[in-house]
Amino acid sequence: MPHTFPPRRIRPGEPADPDVFNETFQAVAGKLSGKLGEQDIDAASLKSSVSVVEEGYYDAHHIYRASDPRWTTSHLWILNWETPSADNPASLLDNASWQAVADTSSDDVLELNIASSEDTFVIFAQVQYIGFGLNTPGMPPSPGDPLRLQFALQVDGVTMDDTATGAFFYPDTPPQQWYRADGVGYDFDFRHIQYIQNTVGMNNGANATRIIRALPVTDGTHNVRLVYRRIPRNNFGVDNDGAGISILAFNRRLFVLRIKGNPSYAGGVPSVDVSAVEDGQTVSLGNIFTNSLESMRQTTNALRAENIERSALRNEHLPSLVYGSDVAYIAPASSVPVTFVAFSTYPGYGVDGLGWTTANNGVGTNLEITNGGAGWDLSANPGTMIVLANLQIWKVAYAADESVGAVCVVTLAYTNSLGARTVLGECEVYINGHNPNPVVTGMEPIGDDAPLMWIVDSNDLSADDKLIDKIEVLVSRHDGGGVLAEPDVKTQRGMITAFVLRDVHT
Amino acid sequence: MPDITFDYIPATGAVLQPDGFNRDLYQQTSGKSLFETLNGNVTYPNLDAAFEVESHLIRPGQTGIARSDGRIFSADYFSDLWAGLNNSFYTPIGGACLSFRVPYDMSYALFSASVFLTVWRQFGPPDPNADDPFDTRLTTPDIRIQMFYGDGNGIAYTRRELPQTVFFKNDGGAPNASIGMVEQYTCHHYNLLHAKIAGKSAPNQQLTKGYATFGLAVYVSQNLNGQQTSGTDYQLNLIFDGADDERPDSYYKGIQRVRTYVRNATVMGLL
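YS: structure for the whole thing
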């Protein structure tokens, strides 16, 4: 609000005019009655000291399913996929329409219903899928069994086109290539390339994906959900022998950060008690001081939210609610073999053990964060912690076998201040090798990327775990091909970042 | 300013001092008058002990920003579009890039670039100069994607080298003779991230007020056109010499390609 000044000055010897007093009091009282604007409030003073009501800037909405595919000690693609109710996966049916990801056992949809004003949603979704070979449930899909699976975000029933993890239109066949070499025995022509038309969605047997999207929303309640579809072949035939490939989603998560934009006012009304001076009234200490100047002084010395104009505070006035943000990365120029302890394998879902190795750059730098060495004190800074990471999985392969059952497992783990490490089963990501060499037996690199995400409300952590020293990216391996040998894994570049939104709870 | 304390407090029965009254209303000395404090000098000590910033007091957009952009139509990036040039550059992927205004310095900023792509990076093309072209197989030039921030500043840790697409030996050799060229093996959805944080050093330094651009770029290294050689720059140009085949001698050019399908870029900046 523009500055205001006393409309009149009282002069010595001037007859006492009630209007002079009243106009002066009204100017002050008016400003105190919800008219204190951005210019009236010293920004630096507020920014350094003021408190923010819980979830004053943001609120968070979170749903997830921790789902164990039961890759334990068995040398199988999956142990008990035929009894999914035990581990709460979601069946991804063979249908080209967008469908909600829903628990197989209960049909509960992975969705959030969020009441908002004119806000901005930042939507994070992550899902791990695993497909199964035709008629061989213990084995992964063969290289010739493309899944053609896509995920996307849906808000209020509208699929957000640009979040689809594949081709939006199909068939959307890449331009074919042709190629010739000399020599009669090796003459070939690939103008008619089989299967190339199926490059419309994620295809390998086990992979994870993450989707992030910002969206401005209007007043109301909004439904946010993760959806999927399975694209038919170019010739609209079903997979291979007609049975179709069954696919399950395991770990899956949906998180919405609401950046509040224009919330409705739910506070009280300003109360400034000023007595008017009436004609004929005797000038007294009470009516020109105690009930006016002094009353307004006391109000000014204890300002409340209702004294301040709506939307008065700008970023200059406001403290950050971000705590403990950190980032680290590894960027080796070439792929790095993961050095596992000999004969170690995946210890199990969320189980710590020798089978895990911290992702690293091969020369001693681990993919981990420590908040600059200070760790995170979520007792003193309660709120929601968001951890995100990526790690390129360059190659997953057996030493001398081309089975696509070779699996790399990647997850997040945190170590508390007592030194106890928790491996986060709910964050586990599985990616299988799926690029067989056509000439010699063996697998070629896949160049995939493992997306990781962990969302946790500090209220859900134990007292010990609220003091976190380190968060790291772990790598393990699983013999899902029944080869009875441990796959080799090569990783390359990666990053991990984390931040805490104080006083925001899911 | 600290709490207001009046200079002038009238006493019962005393004559009102106009100057004192006026000074209680306004004077330049801080913390002594109502108008001086209320005109731009309200400070934290003036707030009620229970005061907390409530949502409705905040101007929209002042605690964070978030933007997204994306495209659904596919776009191809070839290796030989600029034949004869030394194409060692990254090309921004339309739809996976975003330019936006940063209204104030951000404590934390997250940049996300997503793309689904298929890659046609030929696997071990036969060496045309070898007796058996399949016995001597060549390595094809790199194909990569990488996030960038600003003009040309690639973020090394977001670089993803793309694998070679399987190349099929068509004479029935094991193990996948019936499959052909299986680009489907190299379908990828990437969701790459970059973070900028107050107090960090490059490339993660704070996102500050102004304008910013970031996105995803693709690198498909050059394949010079129309030259016959087994050198690594030209390896995909194979001669069909006609001598061993009934078709005439001619050059065939193998190109490398990335097809980007649905893609998206999102930024989130928090105060």
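YS: worth flagging: The longest helix of chain B spans residues 18-25.
IM: good catch. Also The radius of gyration of chain B is 33 Å.
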